[in-house]
Specification:
With 855 residues, the protein is of the alpha+beta class. It has 25 helices and 35 strands. Helix 3 packs across helix 4. The chain binds one RNA strand of 83 nucleotides through helix 7, strand 9, strand 13, helix 10 and strand 31.
Length: 855
RNA sequence: GCGAGAGUGGCGGAAUUGGCAGACGCACUGGAUUUAGGAUCCAGCGGGCAACCGUGGGGGUUCGACUCCCCCCUCUCGCACCA
């Protein structure tokens, strides 16, 4: 091997630029379908806010280690990047700075692409997509049309947060203290016609399949299961006295049915107003108006008082004929169950308090074991198990059995049925926003809502709009967009002006990456079948429910539309922790940026800066580090290395400048290790065995290969992988026989460089050339370890006496248990501790320790 | 309130199956080198003079527990009148 020229000093800047250009020119990371085993690695794509932050650096560094590792192992890796490009911030920027949302977004994408490229991630940039591009959203519109055809997309009326000043719907997070975040006007609950996706049709499958997602973190699955919120129970019809009307209630406790002494309805219940008797009418109407005016935030706050109103009407408990009063109650929700509840004060705490407040009688129907409940002396409801009493033919049954028996009886009598209820609601996707995918629907005065014909897609989002920030969506004022003739009857009609929730775009982008330029449909079946599912998905825990649930739902819908074959989109999921940093503040100037603090003083006024707690990096708290500055000072490799070394990926990462310096120092150490030995190892071959100290070095080299391989593969413990490579570097520095064994030195150095490639690829490519190789380190593949090199001929065995370490012995690795035991009992210090005692028991754990019990 | 996760040196973190607690890094200390500082290299670094004590606290199982079981405390996250 020839000796290449090598700089003495590590210069990240020049190396990184050089290799990034090379990778781009050679299309090193282009994914093509071929015979190799595929591996689809995906990180959650970013919203193009303008600049990348440390969370991105961490997310994509983690992903890049896995992508490069799998590629080195010979997998055909798909590793794409793109932009979640629709959304409100673009409109807000337009309002504030007068820039068009499109211009703002595309400029941001250009900035962020450049920043990401400076990190040297191994993306196939030929597959880049942006969701605001018509070639993307046109296919989303088509999927919507198919869903509309199948009844999976439908329109219904629902209550939303509405700002009367801005004339628009507000998301929950845009409501601050019941007021609009922008203009401060009090938010109203407004009933609006909205488009919904029928995710509830898939509730059961979405729940069941969580048990198949063995590669997902358990907390995420739990959150999804809780969100879906399946509960089993009964629907029971209660006839209303002096009326043909029946009220259907949902209960999970049919075993308490005989104890129902009143009924409560949601204020929004369609029968609420009609049930009011003449003398209760005024009070009932006032109550309904009051409850409706309360927004959801107020209704769920701590100081919310449970209250209700008697309607004046009664219903009949179908099993015992008891006449029970019907109330309206503000804690009964219209959108769960049937909006009507049979109330059992003795066995439900809310009903208990309600009954006390309004003087409603209580009947005990479940007696717990070893206790006798008396309604008169009870201070709270009994919600545990027990035996049925006061329940006619069901007396004496335990309540779990009674649930089934009573349910069966109700079905037999035709007054009720077993049902399953879900907390999950259909997904409202309409947004009265401009910067989003237009919903491809036309409203005809004759035909009602009509789908835009497929051949007329895409419904393009017009670019020539005025964004004033007042008076709702600009689309509603755009005559050329608005006016259209009905595709069915040709009459003058009007386009839908709402756009999709941006979660719709992120629900199928992972599939589009497999065929981003396909122009015959949303997805090229051959490509999706080849690449899906995503083998490893990586992103923040904040998407545990919404995005991940919607993407799972969409995958099932696309399957049922014949677009994909998979049931689930993401085989394995890694949720990475947040990037945190210490906060600092000045009594005078509030939060301070790190560079505003010098020697513990505020640079603005000289006051002593106060160090606050560690919190998620955020602009508002000013505890941020700019990736560009980090790259400028240390290089991308150092930035990558630190974000991988400081903590395991799923935990929060505490950013710390000194830790970054430590990583930079380590890379310099690696560089110098190669530089200092280059002449020595020039032209030397790597041996397949060694003796003495050289053998120890060789053993450590191969042990490190094993450790790093196993730490990356599946375990994602990059911090420990890096730590073991640091140990190898320490061993290389400490290897005194470097002149006698240059071949072992070469093996150690080459292995070091190859093992670090997924973490710090620029430096490793450069060092690989310095070591005399051509063709790029990608071609070298991932090193494998030699089992023979791992074998030790001597082992250190720990000797415990009564559970405490009392000595260590060195024995031959193949020594049998008796020999080891004998040696242990003869060890000097052990003998001292055994003096005057009798050995009762000896446990020998081969290759590890000997435990002696003595008394 | 319900559900989930976590608690280890001055700090970030190791310990993969119940087997030497504290790998690796940071900070700190000492030494070498240097006119000096920085950089670098080498060494030390849980507490205690010691016997010993140490993984949030208390109990248990075991020859042996950071690891398994029971009770308690603290923190983080998610859901929250879900009938």
């Amino acid at each position: 091997m020839r000796r290449a020229f090598m700089e003495e000093r590590y210069d990240a800047g020049s190396i990184e630029g050089k290799w990034q250009t090379r990778w781009e020119q050679d299309k090193t990371f282009k994914a093509q379908e071929d015979g190799r085993e595929k591996y689809y690695l995906l990180e959650m794509f970013p919203y193009p806010s303008g600049r990348i932050h440390m969370g991105h650096v961490r997310n994509y560094s983690i992903g890049d280690v896995v992508a490069r590792f799998k590629r080195l192992q010979g997998y055909n890796v798909l590793h794409p990047m793109g932009w979640d490009a629709f959304g409100m911030p673009a409109e807000n920027a337009a309002i504030q700075h007068g820039t068009h949302p499109g211009k703002w977004t595309y400029e941001n994408i250009d900035n962020m692409r450049a920043q990401i490229k400076k990190m040297g991630f191994s993306y196939d940039w030929d597959r880049e997509l942006a969701t605001c591009h018509p070639e993307y959203y046109r296919w989303e519109q088509l999927i919507f049309l198919k869903m509309f055809e199948k009844g999976l997309a439908y329109k219904k009326s629902s209550f939303v947060n509405w700002c009367p000043e801005c004339q628009t719907v507000l998301a929950n997070e845009q409501v601050e203290n019941d007021a609009c975040w922008r203009c401060g006007t009090e938010v109203e609950q407004k009933e609006l016609e909205q488009w919904f996706f029928k995710i509830t049709d898939y509730a059961q499958e979405l729940l069941d399949d969580t048990y198949k997602l063995t590669g997902w973190p358990e907390p995420v699955l739990t959150m999804q299961r809780n969100w879906i919120g399946r509960s089993t129970g009964c629907e029971i019809d209660f006839p209303v006295v002096d009326s043909d009307v029946k009220i259907k209630v949902f209960t999970t406790r049919p075993d308490t049915l005989y104890g129902a002494t009143f009924m409560s309805l949601a204020a929004e219940h369609p029968l609420a107003s009609g049930l009011a008797s003449a003398d209760c009418k005024a009070e009932v109407e006032a109550f309904i108006a009051r409850v409706r005016a309360q927004d959801k935030i107020k209704r769920t706050s701590d100081d919310f008082v449970k209250e209700g109103v008697f309607t004046g009407s009664y219903s009949i408990n179908p099993v015992n004929g008891r006449r029970i009063p019907i109330y309206l109650a503000n804690f009964v929700l219209m959108d769960y169950g049937t909006g009507a509840v049979m109330a059992v004060p003795t066995h439900d705490q809310r009903d208990f308090e309600f009954a006390d407040k309004y003087g409603i009688p209580k009947v005990v129907v479940i007696q717990p074991e070893g206790e006798v409940l008396d309604p008169a002396s009870m201070t709270e409801a009994w919600t545990g198990s027990g035996t049925l009493v006061n329940s006619g033919p069901f007396d004496g049954l335990d309540n779990e059995t009674a649930k089934d028996k009573i349910a069966a009886y109700l079905e037999e009598q035709g007054v009720g049925s077993k049902t399953i209820n879900y907390r999950l609601r259909d997904w409202g996707v309409s947004r009265q926003r401009y910067w989003g995918t237009p919903i491809p629907v036309i409203y005809c005065p004759q035909c009602g809502p009509v789908a835009v014909p497929e051949q007329e897609l895409p419904v393009l989002l017009p670019m020539d709009v005025e964004i004033s920030g007042e008076g709702g969506s600009p689309l509603a004022k755009h005559q050329a967009f608005l006016q259209v003739s009905c595709p069915t009857c040709g009459a003058d009609a009007r386009r839908e002006t709402d756009t999709f929730d941006t979660f719709v775009e992120s629900s199928w982008y992972f599939a589009r990456y497999t065929c981003p330029r396909f122009d015959q449909g949303p997805l090229d079946r051959a490509a999706v079948d080849h690449w899906l599912p995503v083998d490893q998905y990586i992103g923040g825990i904040e998407h545990a429910v919404m995005h991940l649930l919607y993407a799972r739902f969409f995958t099932k819908v696309m399957r049922d539309l014949g677009l994909v074959s998979q049931d689930e989109p993401f085989k394995n999921l890694l949720t990475q922790g947040m990037v945190c940093m210490e906060t600092t503040s000045c009594p005078e100037h509030g939060w301070l940026y790190p560079e505003q603090v010098v020697a513990g003083k505020c640079t603005l006024c000289g006051a002593t800066a106060k160090t606050g707690r560690n919190e998620k990096m955020s602009k508002s708290k000013k505890n941020v580090v700019d990736p560009d500055q980090l790259i400028a000072s240390y290089g991308a490799d150092t930035a990558r290395l630190f974000s991988l070394f400081a903590a395991p990926p799923e935990k929060d990462l505490e950013w710390n400048e000194q830790g970054v310096e430590g990583c930079y120092r380590f890379l310099n150490r690696v560089w110098r290790a190669v530089y200092d030995n280059l002449e020595r190892i020039s032209g030397v071959a790597i041996p397949t065995s060694a003796e003495g100290a050289a053998r120890d070095l060789r053993r450590q080299v191969h042990r490190t290969i094993k450790k790093v391989t196993e730490d990356i593969d599946g375990r994602f413990h990059f911090n420990t992988a890096i730590a073991s490579v640091m140990e190898l570097v320490n061993a290389i520095y400490g290897f005194e026989q470097r002149d006698e064994h240059p071949g072992c030195m070469r093996e150690a150095l080459e292995t070091l460089v190859r093992l670090l490639t997924p973490f710090v690829p620029h430096m490793c490519e450069e060092l690989w050339v310095c070591l005399g190789h051509q063709g790029g380190i990608e071609a070298a593949g991932w090193p494998t370890w030699d089992e023979a090199a791992l074998v030790e001929d001597k082992k250190t065995i720990v000797v415990q006496v009564n559970g405490k370490v009392r000595g260590k012995i060195i024995v031959a690795a193949d020594a049998d248990d008796d020999t080891v035991q004998q040696a242990a009992l003869e060890e000097g210090n052990v003998v001292r501790f055994l003096e005057g005692k009798t050995v009762r028991k000896v446990v020998v754990v081969p290759g590890r320790l000997v435990s002696i019990v003595a008394s």
